[in-house]
Design brief:
By secondary structure, the chain is mostly helical. The protein contains 14 helices and three strands. Helices cover 81% and strands 4% of the residues. A hairpin with a 6-residue loop joins strand 2 and strand 3. Helix 9 packs antiparallel against helix 10. One of its GO terms (molecular function) is gastrin receptor activity.
């Protein structure tokens, strides 16, 4: 005999069933939109569009530009694919049952949607951890990692990430059912575990929370913290080395200048001053670049922490004492926590890519390519029209000639 799960059981409940504790009380009411419904659909639509556009641009840029397919960018491509799947598979199939107060997609889609939702979140999480480790070894221990930091190795890592996510989320697919709500004609896609496996259910839920949140957050904080420390140490060492080198060179040039003619002394002083100025300029540029890297790494850890912490804390609370959270956390609060988790699907392209000059150039080239295709299509249509009109043929040829000159 199966029992409806009232606690946080697996990531599937985190993403969608969090709204269902109040589902029984609202299911018998009118299915129309209220003010909260309009707010939700507006927020979901904005996040969905930003996620699809942002991740789509990243994917298109990396697919078209082979020079940008570095080891790190290959992982970013995988991250964008998983974030895009999270947006496409999670958001529409979360907001529609919320607004209709009815799951209308059937048993097969219930299992498929929930399973791939969980897989996409797992892939995003594991990819973030892999990126943090790859950057740690690339920056802190470059000599040890040089042999295996190749694109072929990154493809193997990505295959392992997807395989791990598919295997880890199998219990979610096995426990999904479409249940009828009371005596109404409405249904919900819920995770149902047998009563004799409730301890296994709780253990799986806690383990999944640790694997997808606690452990990744610890690894990323440790890796990026070590990277930041290493960069600051390197910057301080470079400042000391450049200061000592500049002082030594100036003293040497001053010694030579005392034995030289006034003209040559002036030339030595000018060249020495220019050399020191150039080295200080390069040093300032290096320091600014390293600071940008450290700032970006800090943002990466904070955005993951901010987006997922509220949902995981409340979900863990749900395991410990369901009645208290059922009364204290409102339906709207769960929706906002879900939206905050979904925000992570489009902030990654912003953080990883829009803060990177090469990606910005890649996005511009994608837009230029699109505009050139549109212009080429327009020119072809003009030429076809010109075949039936001498006047139009003259204008089209002149327009083409001017464009080629430009």
């Amino acid at each position: 005999m199966a029992s409806e799960n009232l606690s946080f059981a697996t990531l599937d409940n985190v993403l969608n069933d969090s709204l269902f504790p109040r589902y029984n009380r609202t299911m018998g009411r009118h299915p129309g939109f209220d003010q909260d419904g309009y707010i939700r659909i507006t927020l979901y639509s904005i996040i969905f569009i930003l996620s699809v556009v942002g991740n789509g641009l990243v994917i298109l840029t990396l697919v078209q530009n082979q020079r940008m397919r570095t080891v790190t960018n290959v992982f970013l491509l995988n991250l964008s694919v998983s974030d895009l799947l999270l947006a496409v598979l999670c958001m529409p199939f979360t907001i529609i049952p919320q607004l209709m107060r009815n799951f209308i997609f059937g048993e097969f889609m219930c299992v498929t949607i929930r399973y791939f939702q969980a897989v996409s979140v797992g892939v995003s999480c594991f990819t973030l951890v892999t990126i943090s480790l790859e950057r740690y070894f690339a920056i802190v221990e470059p000599l040890r990692s040089r042999r295996w930091q190749t694109r072929s190795h990154s493809y193997k890592c990505i295959m392992g990430i997807w395989l791990l996510a598919f295997v880890l989320m199998i219990p979610i697919a096995a426990s999904q059912e479409v249940i009828q709500i009371g005596n109404s004609d409405r249904y919900a896609c819920r995770e149902i575990w047998p009563k004799n496996l409730q301890e296994v259910e709780i253990g799986y839920s806690v383990s999944l929370c640790a694997i997808l949140f606690v452990i990744p957050l610890f690894i990323m904080a440790l890796a990026y913290g070590r990277i930041a420390y290493g960069l600051w140490v390197d910057i301080s060492q470079q400042v000391m080395d450049n200061t000592e080198s500049s002082q030594y060179k100036l003293s040497k040039e001053e010694g030579l200048g005392s034995q030289a003619t006034p003209l040559r002394e002036g030339q030595h002083q000018k060249n020495g001053g220019d050399h020191v100025s150039l080295r200080h300029s390069n040093l300032r540029h290096c320091v600014a670049s390293r600071r940008r890297v450290i700032r970006m790494l800090f943002v990466i850890v904070m955005e993951y922490f901010i987006c997922w912490t509220p949902l995981y804390i409340c979900s863990t609370w749900k395991i410990i004492h369901y009645p208290s959270i059922h009364e204290r956390v409102s339906n709207l609060a769960w929706s906002l926590m879900l939206l905050l988790a979904y925000v992570s699907s489009f902030v990654h392209p912003v953080t990883y890519c829009f803060m990177n000059k090469n990606f910005r150039k890649g996005f511009v080239s994608v837009f230029k390519c699109f505009l050139q295709k549109r212009l080429s299509s327009h020119t072809e249509m003009s030429n076809l029209t010109a075949n039936s009109s001498p006047t139009v043929r003259f204008q089209s040829s002149e327009y083409t000639r001017v464009q080629s000159i430009e």
